[in-house]
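Amino acid chain:
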Amino acid sequence: MPDPHWHSRLVEALHREGLPDAYVDRLVEELSDHVTDFFEETMSMDARDEVESRLGTPEYLAATARAEFQRRTFAGRHPIWTFLAGPPLAIVGTFLLMLLAFLGVYELVNWATGGSLTANEATHTAPSALELALIHGSDLAFSFLPYALPACLFARLARRTGRRDWGVAACSLLAVLALCYWSVIEQRPDRHGVWIMGFFCWPGLRQLAQAAVPLALAAWLAGLPTRGGRRLIIAHEQG
């Protein structure tokens, strides 16, 4: 039977490197099989030292596993391009996709209501409740989603590529950009809509709310390795 202390060190080292749980479980299972066979062959009191001389220390194995795992993907090989240059591009891309979605929803609602939106615009009729709902809903969506959706994307990407530290950096950058962005959509009585936006404004409650999701994901990523490693170690020792 392999040394529980060596196994616990390996699990903790792997999680400290920020590797995904599924990958850690699979690697630990494979290495544990090798170590079990080695213990059964040697039956020596110094088997732990012999294992480390052959396979390496748990810390060395974890560092090697992280390097090999991160070479599999573009994000793992190029974290600067992915997690620092990626967030601003993701914000712009999300804005454009949402704008197309908004235009599509507007046309769909206009078709479903028999062209009432176009008719009201042509006659300069005051905005209906449906139009006001579209305006205010779009205002909130364009304020929060361009930061929340990319933050979820980069947090998931960081976990899958073993780059949790860079995931924290990406979510933190998104939070800073959210704090600097201000936007409001207004519908005037003459039917002329105005979309006002600005950057580097003094953050208010709305800007703090915009940054809440990226900040929460950054804190979650920062706390994952230690908690995950402890859970697996405790489960192994209890088993």
Observations:
- The first helix runs from residue 4 to 16.
- Residues 226-239 have pLDDT under 50 and may be disordered.
- The longest strand covers residues 181-187.
- The chain has two domains: 4-72, 78-224.
